[in-house]
Every structure is written in structure tokens, then in C-alpha cells.
Design goal:
353 residues; mainly alpha; Rhopdopsin 7-helix transmembrane proteins; 2 domains; 13 helices; 0% strand; binds zinc ion
Length: 353
């Protein structure tokens, strides 16, 4: 947008880490943004609106690619004034401050948070390629394959919503992002429980537990969405809820890893716990709320970057491994039996000698 600034420029350890994460999120004060309360910012917006947005005063046209992303004249002024105010503050040795609860990002082609969009697309591709790999490596007869495929679909959908939200932040796109991420995290916990306890196996007891577990998780999601949508849009609650569900998911896979490692002593058994630890570390980046480097790279985008590699490795190793886990365990028990037989044979030879 060609904004006439002649008047606007008037002088003016896993468990410890998890506990720390929850504590920090709960203790975080409800921060109102300083930036949009600054007099110089307010004055800038007022002058800009008058100069550019008044239909009776030859309004400045908005470029097509901005209009396609629903930028209005008032929003163009708000964006431009955020950067004018920030530049002035930095030049006079003051800190960069947030506006309307967000850091002043430099948009690219109208995209508000370009790195978060780029990394969200990276995550989407990791799940999409993972789905292809899953279909190649996991036989269709394996009962858990259906659950793994749904996991990939949830992942893909939530990262599409994330890309849309970071392209343009509106109430509706924010809700889509939050609800999509919530569904994805909750489904992660759901299928982890099914896999770890093998609730997919067709025994009457398992079937009943699976039914109860499914109803419980669906009810949890409906309650979560209803609370946010009809009661209170609460950022801290949303983050805490996702964090708790994510931790149960991590705990389930860590128990799985521990049990298999004790059983076999094989390195493949530690893959799930390694990857969930990686995700926890990436998640802790969310706590480092610093102004975006070069106006674009912030802690939130780095958290989205940090989840790409574990997603790739999850589909590459963990899901195929858990599919052939029974085979691996059988091979391992045969190996133990063989070595015991060998030891017995050697002993017998010693006795005979
Ligand atoms: Zn995000």
C-alpha cells in the first residue's frame, strides 16, 4: 500500500521440564500489549487513517495481493504504524514491544508470519509423506494401520489450519488452528493408548475398554471445544490442556520404550521415547518469547521448525517398528533361547571333558 507519510511522521529432565513448562504457563501474567497503547502509535494510526482511508479524501488503493489476503485500509495503517513505531523505538535505544498481543512481524507478500507458515507447510509435508511411507511399509492386514493413517490425516489437517492462521490472523482462522491442534494432540494420546495396550485386538475385554476409551476421548474433545467456544476463549487454559494431553501421550510412548528396552536391550526400543523427548524440548521454545529475529523468526516459528524432523522419523522408524515389534520380540526370544541352548551344550561338553 502506498501510504502518504508526510503527516504521519510527525515527531512522537523430562518431568522437570514438563513441570516447569506448566508452572511457567500458569504463572505467566495476562499481558496487555504496550505497543498499541503508545501515544505515538495511536497518533500515527489516526493520521494514516485520515490520509489514506477516508473515502472522501482520495483513498490510497491497496495492492491486489494484499486485498486477496483480506487486508483492509485500517489494517494496512495499523501494520505500517507498528513498524514506524518499532523503528523509532529501536533507534532511540528502546526495546521492541508487542502490538495487540503479537510481535511486529515483517510480512511477505501479505503473509503475516512467513516462517511459521513455511514450517507449518514443512510439518504438513512430513505427515503427507509419512502417510505414503506408512502405506508402503505397514501391511494393510495389520489392525493398527487404520489408526496410524487417521493420525496422519489429523496431522495434515492441523498443519493446513496452522498455515492459514499464520498467513492471516483472524478470529476464525485462530479458532481453526486451535481446534485442529487440539484434535491432533488428543488423537495422538488416543491411538498411543490403543497401541500400547493393544486395544485393537479382538478380545471381548479389549473391545469394551476400547469403546469406553473412544467415548471418553470424544467427550473430552467436545468439552474442550465447548469451553473455548461458548464459555471463554482462554489461551492459558488451551495451552495447559494441550500440554497435559501431550504429556500423557509422551508418557505412554516412554513406558512402551522402557518396557521393550528392558525386554530386549535393543536400540530400536528407545526410538519412541527419544522422539517424544525431542518434541518436549522443541515445545519449550514456546517459553522463550523473544522479539522476532530479522522481524520474522520468533520462538513460535522455531517450535514449528522443531517438530518437522521428529514427524519424519516417527513415520520412518517408530510406526513400522511397532508394526513388526511382535516379530522382533519373537526373534529376540529365539536368540535368547539359542544362546541358552548353546551355553547348556558348552557346559555339557565341559562336564564330558
Ligand atoms: Zn502456530
Amino acid at each position: 500500500m502506498l501510504i502518504r507519510w508526510k503527516t504521519a511522521t510527525h515527531p512522537s529432565s523430562l518431568l522437570l521440564l514438563a513441570t516447569a513448562l506448566i508452572a511457567c504457563l500458569l504463572l505467566q501474567p495476562a499481558e496487555a500489549s504496550l505497543g498499541d497503547r503508545l501515544p505515538e502509535f495511536r497518533e500515527c494510526v489516526e493520521v494514516c487513517d485520515h490520509e489514506n482511508c477516508d473515502p472522501n479524501n482520495d483513498p490510497t488503493p491497496i495492492p491486489l495481493h494484499h486485498r486477496l489476503l483480506f487486508w483492509t485500509c485500517a489494517q494496512e495503517c495499523d501494520y505500517t504504524c507498528q513498524h514506524i513505531t518499532t523503528t523509532r523505538r529501536v533507534e532511540s535505544g528502546q526495546s521492541v514491544t508487542q502490538f495487540h498481543g503479537k510481535w511486529p512481524f515483517v510480512r511477505v507478500l501479505g503473509v503475516q508470519e512467513p516462517f511459521s507458515v513455511l514450517f507449518s507447510i514443512g510439518n504438513f509435508l512430513a505427515h503427507q509423506n509419512g502417510l505414503g511411507r506408512l502405506r508402503e511399509r505397514v501391511p494393510s492386514t495389520y489392525p493398527m494401520r487404520w489408526y496410524y493413517e487417521v493420525f496422519a490425516y489429523f496431522g495434515m489437517a492441523s498443519w493446513v489450519f496452522s498455515s492459514i492462521f499464520h498467513t492471516r490472523d483472524f478470529k476464525a482462522t485462530e479458532q481453526l488452528d486451535y481446534f485442529g491442534a487440539g484434535a491432533s494432540v488428543l488423537y495422538g494420546m488416543y491411538y498411543a493408548m490403543v497401541r500400547v495396550l493393544r486395544l485393537d485386538l479382538p478380545t471381548p475385554r479389549r473391545r469394551s475398554i476400547l469403546r469406553l476409551w473412544t467415548v471418553f476421548c470424544c467427550a473430552l474433545y467436545v468439552a474442550h471445544i465447548s469451553y473455548l467456544k461458548f464459555w471463554r476463549w482462554d489461551y492459558t487454559y488451551n495451552m495447559t490442556a494441550n500440554l497435559i494431553v501431550g504429556m500423557v501421550h509422551n508418557l505412554l510412548w516412554s513406558c512402551f520404550s522402557w518396557a521393550r528396552w528392558r525386554e530386549t536391550g535393543q536400540s530400536w526400543a528407545i526410538w519412541p521415547s527419544m522422539l517424544v523427548a525431542w518434541i518436549m524440548l522443541a515445545m519449550s521454545l514456546e517459553l522463550l518469547d523473544f522479539p522476532p529475529l530479522w522481524g520474522a523468526l520468533d520462538a513460535h516459528s522455531l517450535w514449528h521448525l522443531g517438530t518437522i524432523a521428529p514427524a519424519v522419523l516417527w513415520y520412518k522408524y517408530v510406526l513400522p517398528l511397532t508394526t513388526f515389534e511382535e516379530t522382533l520380540l519373537t526373534v529376540h526370544s529365539f536368540m535368547i533361547k539359542d544362546s541358552q541352548d548353546l551355553a547348556k551344550a558348552v557346559k555339557l561338553k565341559d562336564i564330558k571333558a
